[in-house]
Design brief:
This protein has 64 residues and is α+β, with helices and mostly antiparallel strands. The chain has one domain. 38% of the residues lie in helices and 19% in strands. Strands 1-2-3 form a 3-stranded antiparallel beta sheet, with no helix packed on it. Bound molecules: zinc ion (ZN). Zinc ion (ZN) binds next to loops.
Length: 64
């Protein structure tokens, strides 16, 4: 089995932990899973991922 996102059920509602801060995010009434508690956290995670990618590319260039 692969590691899934931490989730828990209570009273029929599914919660996922915010990918950025870990706050439980209610999945009630959403078709697609909401991974972040606020839009700004989604944006931050997106930026962090982008920076990480740039860093990886820079490191790869240096090691050549
Ligand atoms: Zn959050």
């Amino acid at each position: 089995m692969t590691d899934q996102l931490p989730n828990q059920r209570s009273a029929g509602t599914t919660y996922l932990s915010c990918e950025w801060c870990g706050t439980p995010v209610s999945q009630l009434g959403t078709r697609t899973p909401r991974l972040y508690c606020k839009r700004s956290h989604r944006q931050r995670a997106f930026e962090a991922r982008r920076l990480l990618k740039l860093e990886e590319q820079a490191t790869a260039k240096l090691s050549q």
